Amino acid sequence: MRPVPTEQLRHYVVASTSDTVTPVEVYTGAELATLPRSGPADVLTAVERGRRAQTAWAATDLADRKAIFARFHGLLLAHREELADLVQAETGKARRDAFEEIAEPVLVTSYYLRRAGALLRPRRRAGAMPLAVRATELRVPHGVVGVIAPWNYPLALSMADAIPALFAGNAVVLKPDSQTALSPLLAVDLMHRAGLPEHLIQVVLGDGPVIGAAVVDSTDFVAFTGSTRTGIEVAARAAERLIGCSLELGGKNPMIVLDDAPLDRAAAIAARGAFANAGQLCLSMERIYVPEPTFDAFAKRLVAVTENLRLGAGYDYGFDVGSLVSAAQLKRVSEHVDDARAKGARVLSGGRPRPDLGPYFYEPTVLAEVNPDMLCHTEETFGPVVSLYPYRTLDEAVLLANQSAFGLNASVLGDARRAAAVAPRLRAGTVNVNDAVNSAYGSTDAPMGGMRASGLGRRHGAEGLLKYTEAQTVAVQRIPVLGVPRWLPFRVYARVLVGALKALRRLRIR
Ligand code: NAD
Question: How far is the CA of 245 from the centre of ligand 1 (A)?
Fold first, then answer.
């Protein structure tokens, strides 16, 4: 990998303490960089500076904002290899997963370059009285948006929120996970090289409950991506200040294999859906429902695909699956598999750590005979572990798929028309037909997010931009027809008003 440009990146961290955070290379445990650690006062400083910069930014012509993002788009692509190096080093993921991660900010930037003008422009609305009142809906930025991002897709998830927030005229205070701050910092550097004015995006680093909480306590809107447990805390804190938040949270995502699905193709899609990013993907498939008669044949094929996956550390495309991110993540995954095994689950493939490959590697694992007493039945594992369940009827499969507190992503494999007809019966924010993740996630024009315990609000599409604004109605009374003239008794005015309301209804104006 290329050397980490630490000096160039630390410049964007707002920190007045002498403490530091030290991300490590996941494959080896070697220190990657020493970055400044922010204190709660630094968050306030960042918000104040952001607030000052935002006023001028919001007044800038959208065309000028767009010109900066057009340059940023080019810079992201030009620096893709450096970005991929940093993403891999700080997360331990495979190169192919790192490369897919870079596609997200590129797609989001080009999407809003195309759509922001139409979405943000003032809209004429029918006024209170035809001709007499002209009403216009404006989209006003919140001010300073706090973006809190997790470690699993550090570049994609910090940028997927920061980019539309900036397009909409906000400033951003970004708090990435301290272990995975380098790739978002390089993206912030590229934004500045593209011409973004100072202080519009600033980074704060430190422990989530301290620095993340300070971000929620001082910004005007919070875009949070992370676990459901933390999301609930963030929502409660935001509610105390009556600020809005969007929450992109966990999942326990189901895949339904229909009885007409070609099994080889289904197994290949299932393996990618379960083991991409070593399963540390909120949209990962963790439960697969298979028709009873084809259960064994599908399981055999999935095991074959799984055992062909190349697991290992390297900054090239030689491996399909990389490492888990940390000791904590390895512990969680091991606990889920050991618990299932001890309670009678069958391990069809994998099921053990691989310290010979690196400190946090774990084999892609396929389980069967998993029951509700086991941790991996209900809780999000967030690792390369998938459970297979047989079903008898489609209704039963839908019922089982919906038996979860979460509702993030789902997949249905089989004849495209039949599979698409199952989709609306699933309680999930996205449903991929004949795919697991990328078809829905890559459709940047469509909203993306979770139902139930998987979150609030959406990223991507119109919602992904408009959530960074508030609606403001400006109504201009052009002819003074509203209100009671002093000379008119109110009784008469009331009669006139009722007549007018009836007429408006008849004319279908109101
Ligand atoms: P996490 O909730 O532990 O941390 C997420 C971020 O929040 C980190 O930056 C962390 O420092 C910060 N944080 C922690 N405590 C905080 C607090 N009290 N107040 C404010 N901020 C706080 O999650 P994680 O372990 O980093 O990420 C994994 C989780 O994220 C999984 O559950 C995964 O499903 C979810 N996730 C969801 C999506 C999505 O788009 N729905 C995407 C990726 C990950």
Answer: 14
